[in-house]
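Please produce the structure of this protein holding heme C.
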Amino acid sequence: MNLSFKSIASWSIVVLIIMQFVPLKRINPPVVSDIQLPGSIKNSLKKACYDCHSNETQWDNIAYIAPASWFASNIVASGRNALNFSVWNNQKIANKRQETTKIQKVISQGAHQQLYYLWKPGSHLTAKEAKALLQWLNLNMK
Ligand code: HEC
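Below is the modeled complex.
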């Protein structure tokens, strides 16, 4: 078979179209026991973490186009699985203090979030927001 550029291109388009029909779990289950935080602290967490660590994910446009949507829904599923602020009191976190330390590590390093979150640059915490969050967690969650 002679695979010309044109036939490869048209087959790729067909495959891309078929990919769009793979069903995805792009749902937001109900919020059961949301973590209780004061307004500004909550806003920072919402901005930087809630898309992957809560049931209030704001699905981006890119989350509707395969194959990007496959990555997005996978990341959200494993993010929620590891830590979910919407079921803060219900989830099986053995030690909330230890979990807070992990959360602080992610906030101060920023790396984990940036790695996954390239598609939404507006969600990164400013240095000031990060500092306020870290301080608040230190005073109130430990
Ligand atoms: C784009 C998705 C995404 C965003 C945004 C995100 N995370 Fe995550 N996070 C994940 C995924 C996926 C995992 C599980 C796999 C891993 O550890 O890399 C995870 C794991 C974690 C864990 C480890 C949980 C455990 O108990 O082992 C912590 C803590 C965490 N995230 C905190 C945060 C915090 C705090 C923010 C906001 C500043 C944040 N994450 C933003 C996707 C995300």
